[in-house]
Design goal:
The protein is built from five helices and six strands. Helix content is 21%, strand content 31%. The termini are far apart. The longest helix is centred in the middle third of the chain and has 8 residues. Bound molecules: zinc ion. Zinc ion binds next to loops. InterPro entries: PUA-like_sf. This is ASCH domain-containing protein.
């Protein structure tokens, strides 16, 4: 039996993935929630937003053609998810988004790891996860991940 790597991932369209790294965007606005708390790989999807050029200009990012696609480019810690929050929690929070995923300690990968993205929360392949985790500072390894869906006791803690 192989242990599941203590890493989950979400696929984020560019340039939003770049904003999580370059601009330290600390809230990911989503219409769905998850029970995972711990290391979260930020995978830049293959397809950019339709208005990517406009968003890049607005935030002073590199051009869309200069961004990385189809790769894990960073790792953050998913520390909280706000449900039906007013949006006052962060500059990056959209009041109309049902869930605010709160990211902390974001680390850019020196070597982005090419891989396919997926819908919803996903678990990277073991070799990809190892290559990602090897690039992280020790302080992130010290933060254990919890998937409350596989263990009922932390769920009570998280929702207490
Ligand atoms: Zn919020």
């Amino acid at each position: 039996m192989t242990a599941q790597p203590c890493l989950r991932a979400i696929t984020v369209r560019q340039p939003w993935a770049e904003l999580i790294t370059y601009a330290r965007k600390t809230v990911e606005n989503r219409s769905w929630t998850c029970t995972w708390r711990g290391l979260l790989a930020i995978h830049a999807g293959k397809t950019p937003e339709a208005d990517a050029a406009e968003i890049c200009r607005y935030f002073g990012l590199r051009k869309p053609s200069a961004l990385t696609y189809g790769a894990i480019i960073a790792v953050a810690r998913l520390v909280d998810v706000h449900d039906n929050c007013s949006g006052d929690c962060s500059y990056w929070a959209e009041p109309e988004a049902q869930f605010h995923w709160v990211l902390a300690d974001t680390v850019d990968l020196r070597q982005p790891m090419n891989c396919s993205g997926k819908q919803r929360l996903w678990t990277p392949e073991a070799d990809t996860a190892t290559a990602v985790l090897d690039q992280l500072p020790a302080r992130l390894h010290a933060a254990p991940g919890i998937d409350a869906s596989t263990d009922p006791s932390p769920l009570e803690v998280i929702h207490a």
